[in-house]
Design brief:
This protein has six helices and 29 strands. The chain is mainly β. The longest helix is centred in the middle third of the chain and has 15 residues.
């Protein structure tokens, strides 16, 4: 993705965004880390970590680094905000950048008018070119000076209690808006189970049917892992067994299939509110897609390293061979995650069995090359009960099998 700025009296400036690496006119400026970014000086290509201190809303309040020989961290920029995101001025306003020393030997702290790292309010990038001073939220552009979006909410008719230009439901101290899209929230049902409904935005929308939670939430699970309830209805679990338990229990509780994407470090349970009893979906109607067998995550904007997927069947049956529009287990296997397993928790009485289907990539006009295994019959300890308890690891099992080699010849 690129941004092109064409001033009337200056040279054109092209900014390229490449999976966390940011370039200006084909020269790397910095790349992102979980704690901030790595600054790259413009001439000698020296690298230096810069750390961001963020508040509870994800606002970058302080950027600092450590210079060679320094006894204390050096502050590059301090940012304080009014509730709707406009930055305070006239105090603590000096901005610095990391630059090469005159002799090119070391890195120094140099005063500047504008730091090349412009991610600030809610962690979003400030578009200050041409005097616009707007934040890019993905779906819409936000003006912190007036606390309003500049673009109409495309789903305004479903949120009629709020102006289509209102930011964070007019409560920016409590809510954030991760992407500029419609507000949709989490709640606990009468059994205390977290559920997501795009029509719920307050306790008034629930009445006595549950307890309103909010746009996002993060909880510690009974196993000691974490569950990150995200703004689109998906859940990121740090422990795989928690994700499999959620998929099975919520499928049985709601009557809707739910699909989980197994990553090499975490498991992402996809939104289920549009699903049915016979269709778990792959999130393609909610902005998710697959590239080279890996999930493209619209919330993080990053690729989710995918090793397989798992869902539960209400019917008690194994994987299906339906392929319509990448629906059906075979359709998902060959269309989304070729040469990777699609597991099915069968919902059987007694010890719950586990099945799997895996396929070569879809080729138009060719019959699919796939295999179906009864995993529990072949490997008795690999069953749906054990992977939910955490006594066996579906991730480790997946990594230890060469799925492509095991396809039909």
């Amino acid at each position: 993705m690129s941004k092109v700025v064409e001033p009337t009296t200056e040279d054109i400036v092209v900014t390229d965004y490449q999976d966390g690496f940011q370039y200006t006119d084909e020269v790397i400026q910095f790349f992102l880390t979980s704690e901030g970014y790595v600054n790259v000086t413009s001439t000698k290509y020296k690298f230096r970590y810069v750390y961001n201190y963020k508040d509870h809303l994800g606002n970058v309040r302080l950027s600092f680094s450590s210079l060679p020989g320094a006894t204390a961290p050096s502050i590059l920029e301090e940012s304080n905000y009014y509730p709707f995101g406009l930055k305070h001025e006239n105090y603590n306003s000096q901005v610095y950048e990391l630059a090469d020393s005159a002799d090119g030997v070391s890195i120094i702290l140099a005063p500047t008018i504008r730091n090349k790292y412009q991610y600030k309010f809610n962690g979003k990038e400030l578009q200050d070119e041409l005097g616009l001073n707007l934040y890019d939220y993905g779906a819409r552009n936000y003006d912190p000076a007036i606390g309003r979006w500049l673009n109409l909410d495309p789903l305004a008719e479903t949120s009629r209690r709020f102006s289509p230009y209102t930011y964070a439901l007019n409560n920016p101290v409590f809510f954030i808006d991760p992407d500029g899209m419609e507000a949709t929230d989490w709640f606990k049902d009468l059994k205390g189970v977290m559920q997501f409904d795009p029509k719920v935005q307050s306790q008034a929308d629930l009445g006595n049917k549950g307890t309103y939670v909010g746009d996002t939430d993060k909880q510690t699970t009974a196993s000691g892992g974490t569950a990150d309830f995200r703004s689109d209805g998906s859940i990121m679990y740090s422990k795989e067994s928690d994700a499999y338990s959620r998929v099975m229990s919520n499928t049985l509780g709601t009557g809707r299939e739910q699909n989980a994407i197994i990553g090499d470090k975490s498991v992402l349970v996809l939104p289920d509110y549009n699903n049915s009893a016979s269709s778990g979906g792959s999130g393609t109607d909610l902005g998710y897609s697959f590239k080279n067998g890996n999930l493209q995550d619209p919330i993080s904007g990053k690729e989710f390293n995918t090793i397989g997927s798992v869902h539960a069947h209400l019917s008690g049956g194994g994987p299906s061979t339906y392929t319509g529009d990448t629906w059906g287990d075979l359709g998902v296997a060959q269309g989304n995650t070729p040469n990777k397993p699609v597991f099915v928790m069968k919902n059987q009485p007694g010890t719950d069995g586990l099945g799997v289907i895996f396929s070569s990539p879809y080729v138009k006009g060719q019959a699919p090359n796939y295999r179906i295994w009864d995993v529990t019959k072949l490997f008795p300890k690999m069953n749906a009960d054990n992977i939910q308890k955490g006594t066996t690891s579906l991730r480790d099992f997946t990594k230890n099998i060469d799925w492509k080699t095991n396809l039909k010849k």
